[in-house]
Amino acid sequence: MNPAAVRLCSAEELNLEKTLTCGQCFRWEKENTAWIGIAGAVPARLWEENGSVWLQSPDPGPWRDYFDLATDYRTLAHRIEEAGGYLRAAAAEGRGIRLLRQDPWETLCSFLLSQCNNIPRIRKILEVLCRNFGRKIRWEGRTYCAFPEPEVLAAQTPETLAPLRCGYRAEYLLDAAEKTAGGAVELEKLREVPTEQARACLRTIRGVGTKVADCVCLYGLGHRDAFPVDVWIRRALQEHFPPDFDPSRLGPAAGLAQQYLFYFRRGEKKEPRQTDGSGKNPDRKNWEK
Question: 270 catalytic, yes or no?
């Protein structure tokens, strides 16, 4: 028997399309009007109907935490909007995006594989990784694959990971698995330490630079002050912000600002940089105060 649908929240609180396509995660698929995916070993089906987000899952328990529904996003968004200019426009466009609270191990592996890669290929590599090494879970007539544990990947070799076709990134996965399974990197404990300390520990893993570390901090460890800079964020910063822009001034709203900027900049048409008539970017004034 299929589980009954459960109302998760309002569609204003959580926009599924924006949140699940905004570079945080790679294992959700849209089928017609519903999103199908798995977090940990729990599959789910989510959809929007009559202004609400609805959920079907064999275990509805984890999903409020996964979508960070206990956090007051209005206060965070207000802090971003107060910065004005481009950030205010990005916040208006990105309303409904939430920061996913994902498993840190899966997040680490996902962003190690994301380097110099495109989203379709990242998704394919993760699909093969989970199919080959993850535990199989049957639900609603389909098979889902849990993300393989660190101990499982630590037992692999570059040869056994060859079907992933992830090239040099296989060595990164193996090093991450060995350090995580062996206790050199204790991911759960990194939730409780300052972001700088978590970032420094993550960077002891081969292939983890500042951007990957910040992605893991933000999307896997819950450090909302982390601000990953990828190509889209870099373009937004170069085009609309002064060179001394410091996202740490946004405090715990910095990570949400990053998602708003990512969503907004990717959706923009390529247009000339705007000025206020003085030749300066109008956003610059907000960060020179």
Answer: no
